[in-house]
């Protein structure tokens, strides 16, 4: 019997690199899983049979309402909400347009707000059944410290961190736990895009050279995989984490623990 047997979960960005791994893990643990994304293929370009696809632009309140209405019709409750959808713009504030800035906040912050807001009635119904409901947001280690050339992204993740704490305080009395996972470098399409973008500071280096440089800067000499993130998400989603709420869980291979001038 899986750790999420009988639970209902919705994962935004569910067809992306990390979201897809979370959906697959939830399904293996016995959950009924909705993968909410802009397309069934997502950033990897192909569907995934482990979860039910729901088309969702998280920046659209009408689409968020429709997605939650579908879950309500099917199950009448939602035990787990994972806000994994996100975008990254590799620019300083000087080079970032207002449209790009607003889009970053619309997806990374407003999207988290909207899905959580409209999931709450369904999550109260789940909590009334005797086990805590769980919202898991996606922050970043970039919400604590900053990578160069990611100004808007860093700003949105700092906002998600603060929102997570506020939600945990507001809705803990209702049996709804709220946490954020703060990944470092994870092997996803977004990371590969970073390697090829201006924000990487590549300076003409090959992709292989950049990947090796990123591995070497970590104390563990590697970056993470989507499954590494899904492992922590799975724990936070389940009843074993019943006392975990309001926390920012950094998962970065020790990157943010070290003095960056001493990459030994």
Please give a structural write-up.
The model has no long low-confidence stretch (mean pLDDT 89). The chain has seven helices and seven strands, in the order E-H-E-E-H-E-H-E-H-E-H-H-H-E. Helix 1 links the parallel strand 1 (8-12) and strand 2 (32-37). It has a single domain (8-186, 225-251), classed as Rossmann fold (3-Layer(aba) Sandwich), CATH 3.40.50.720. It is α/β, with parallel strands linked by helices and 264 residues long.
Keywords, separated by commas or semicolons:
264 residues; alpha/beta; Rossmann fold; 7-stranded parallel sheet; 7 strands; 14% strand
Radius of gyration: 18 Å
| Beta strand count | 7
Percent of residues in helices: 40-55%
Class from secondary-structure proportions = alpha/beta
What spatial order of strands do you see in the largest sheet?
3-2-1-4-5-6-7
Distance between the termini: 44 Å
SS field, number of helical segments: 7
Oligomer class: single chain
Please summarize what this structure is.
The protein is α/β, with parallel strands linked by helices and 264 residues long.
SSE order and pairing:
Elements lengths: L7 E5 L4 H12 L3 E6 L14 E4 L5 H14 L5 E4 L14 H30 L5 E6 L12 H21 L4 E8 L5 H8 L10 H11 L8 H12 L10 E4 L13
Parallel strand pairs: 1-2, 1-4, 2-3, 4-5, 5-6, 6-7
Helix pairs in contact: 1-7, 2-3, 3-4
């Amino acid at each position: 019997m899986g750790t999420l047997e009988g639970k209902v979960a919705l994962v935004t960005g569910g067809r992306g690199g990390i979201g897809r791994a979370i959906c697959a893990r939830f399904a293996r643990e016995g959950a009924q899983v909705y993968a909410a994304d802009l397309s069934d293929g997502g950033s990897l370009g192909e569907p995934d049979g482990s979860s039910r696809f729901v088309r969702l632009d998280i920046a659209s309140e009408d689409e968020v309402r429709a997605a939650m209405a579908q879950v309500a019709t099917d199950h009448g409750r939602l035990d787990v909400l994972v806000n994994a959808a996100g975008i990254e713009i590799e620019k300083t504030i000087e080079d970032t347009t207002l449209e790009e800035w607003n889009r970053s906040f619309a997806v990374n912050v407003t999207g988290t707000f909207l899905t959580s807001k409209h999931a709450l009635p369904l999550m109260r119904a789940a909590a009334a059944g005797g086990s805590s409901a769980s919202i898991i947001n996606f922050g970043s280690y970039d919400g604590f410290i900053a990578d160069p050339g990611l100004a808007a992204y860093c700003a949105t993740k700092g906002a998600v961190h603060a929102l997570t704490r506020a939600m945990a305080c507001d809705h803990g009395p209702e049996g709804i736990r709220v946490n954020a996972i703060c990944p470092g470098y994870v092997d996803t399409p977004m990371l590969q895009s970073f390697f090829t973008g201006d924000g990487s500071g590549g300076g003409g280096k090959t992709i292989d050279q950049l990947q090796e440089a990123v591995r070497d800067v970590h104390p563990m000499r590697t970056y993470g995989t989507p499954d590494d993130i899904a492992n922590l998400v799975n724990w936070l989603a389940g009843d074993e984490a019943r006392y975990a709420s309001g926390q920012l869980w950094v998962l970065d291979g020790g990157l943010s623990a070290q003095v960056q001038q001493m990459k030994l």
